[in-house]
Write a structure and sequence with these properties.
By secondary structure, the protein is of the alpha/beta class. It is built from 13 helices and eleven strands. The longest helix is centred in the first third of the chain and has 22 residues. The chain is globular, with a radius of gyration of 19 Å. The two termini are about 25 Å apart.
C-alpha cells in the first residue's frame, strides 16, 4: 500500500466517522419510538424525510464519503442490541462516557439475529447520496466491553470473551452484506481498544492484563473481517465522549503495534486533534501498509477550526505517514448517542473547514 487514495482521483480524501448531531425533534422521535409512543413504521417514514438533509449537509460541506448521520440510531453500539435478540434493555449504567447517564442493554440470553444491523440504512443512504458512502457498525470487542455484565449475562455467556466470540459471526455477516450492497467503505467502531491506554479506565474496569485485552480485540477484528476480500474496511479508535468531555485520555503507544496485526483492515480512523489523545509522534510506529484516517477536527471543542489549522495538523502527521496514505476525518462521530447534546450547525462548519483544508493541501 505504498500510495493509496482510496478510490479517489485526489489526495487527502475526506470522510466522516459516522454520527451527526440530531435536531431536537429527531431526538424526541427516537425516544418516543423507544417508549412506544409512536410505531416503528410511522417513525421510519418521518426519518426517511429527515435523513436526506443529513446527507445533503455533508455533501455541501464537501465530503468525499458521507454517512446517513446515524440519525435512525439511539446509539452507535445499541444498534447491535436493536437487531439481535438476547438483550435486557438498559440495565448497565453509564454510556460511552462516565459523564453520561445513558443506560445500556446487557446480554441476558443466547444471541439470535432478528434483522440486519445496518443494511436498511445503507440501502437508503446509497439511494440518496451523490458522494461515496461509509457505514459504521460496532466491533465485537466494543460490544462485549459495553454490553456484558456478570450480574445479567453470566447465565447466557459465562465470560465476556465468550460473548464477544458469539458476536463475531454476526458482525462478519453484516460486513459481507454491506459490501454486497455496494457500500464504498465499512467502518468498525472500536473505541474500547483506545480506552485501554488510560490507567484510570483500566482500574475502573478491573483490567490487569492489557496484552490479553489487546490480543482479544485483534482476534475479534480479524474474525469479523475474515473472508471479505479487498473491501475497504476501517477501524475507528477514540477516547469516547459525551457532552464535550472524553471518558479517558492518553497516548496510543501501547496499542499502536496491534494495528498492524489486524490483517484485513485497510484504514484506521484515529482521534488526534484533541489534546487528550497525546502526542502525534506515536505515528512513527503506525503500520507502513495501512491508511491513516487522521482526526483533524476536535468535536469536543466549540472552536471551529480554520482550514489552515487543518493543514497544519496534516503536515505534522506527514512527518511520519506519507501523504498518499492519509485521509482526513473528525476525531469521532459528533453524536454517537442520540442523547449527546451537540450542535448541527457547528458540525457543518467544522466539516466544511476540514474539506477546505484538504483542498489547500492538494493545491500545495
Amino acid at each position: 500500500m505504498a500510495n493509496l487514495t482510496i478510490g479517489q482521483d485526489h489526495l487527502f480524501p475526506t470522510m466522516v466517522v459516522g454520527s451527526l448531531p440530531r435536531p431536537e425533534w429527531i431526538r424526541d422521535l427516537i425516544e418516543d419510538r423507544k417508549a412506544g409512543r409512536i410505531g416503528n413504521r410511522d417513525a421510519e417514514r418521518l426519518l426517511d424525510d429527515a435523513v436526506p438533509l443529513a446527507i445533503r449537509m455533508q455533501e455541501r460541506a464537501g465530503l468525499d464519503y458521507v454517512s446517513d448521520g446515524e440519525w435512525r440510531r439511539e446509539s452507535y453500539v445499541k444498534v447491535f442490541a436493536d437487531a439481535v435478540d438476547g438483550f435486557q434493555s438498559d440495565v448497565i449504567p453509564g454510556g460511552g462516557s462516565r459523564f453520561s447517564t445513558v443506560a445500556y442493554p446487557a446480554v441476558a440470553s443466547r444471541l439470535e439475529p432478528k434483522h440486519s444491523i445496518a443494511s436498511g440504512e445503507a440501502t437508503f443512504l446509497r439511494k440518496h447520496a451523490n458522494a461515496r458512502t461509509v457505514v459504521a457498525i460496532p466491533s465485537p470487542y466494543t460490544i462485549g466491553r459495553r454490553m456484558w455484565s456478570a450480574e445479567h449475562s453470566a447465565s447466557a455467556y459465562p465470560t465476556r470473551e465468550e460473548f464477544m466470540e458469539a458476536c463475531i459471526p454476526i458482525i462478519r455477516q453484516e460486513i459481507q452484506d454491506l459490501v454486497r450492497l455496494g457500500v464504498d467503505a465499512v467502518q468498525l467502531d472500536d473505541p474500547w481498544l483506545a480506552l485501554l491506554v488510560d490507567s484510570g479506565y483500566r482500574r475502573r474496569e478491573g483490567i490487569v492484563d492489557i496484552d490479553r485485552e489487546i490480543e482479544l480485540c485483534v482476534r475479534c477484528v480479524n474474525g469479523a473481517t475474515e473472508g471479505i476480500g479487498d473491501a475497504f474496511v476501517s477501524v475507528h479508535l477514540c477516547h469516547a465522549h459525551f457532552n464535550r468531555a472524553h471518558s479517558t485520555k492518553g497516548p496510543y503507544d501501547i496499542i499502536v503495534g496491534a494495528l498492524g496485526q489486524m490483517t484485513n483492515v485497510q484504514r484506521f480512523a484515529i482521534e488526534f486533534a484533541t489534546p487528550d489523545a497525546g502526542s502525534i509522534g506515536v505515528l512513527r510506529d503506525f503500520p507502513p501498509d495501512k491508511v491513516l484516517g487522521l482526526g483533524v477536527i476536535d468535536h469536543t471543542d466549540p472552536h471551529v477550526e480554520t482550514a489552515e489549522e487543518v493543514v497544519a495538523r496534516v503536515e505534522r502527521a506527514m512527518e511520519f505517514v506519507p501523504k498518499g496514505r492519509i485521509t482526513l476525518n473528525p476525531d469521532c462521530g459528533f453524536a454517537p448517542s442520540s442523547a449527546n447534546p451537540m450542535d448541527l450547525d457547528e458540525a457543518y462548519l467544522k466539516l466544511r473547514a476540514m474539506c477546505q483544508g484538504a483542498r489547500l493541501l492538494r493545491e500545495k
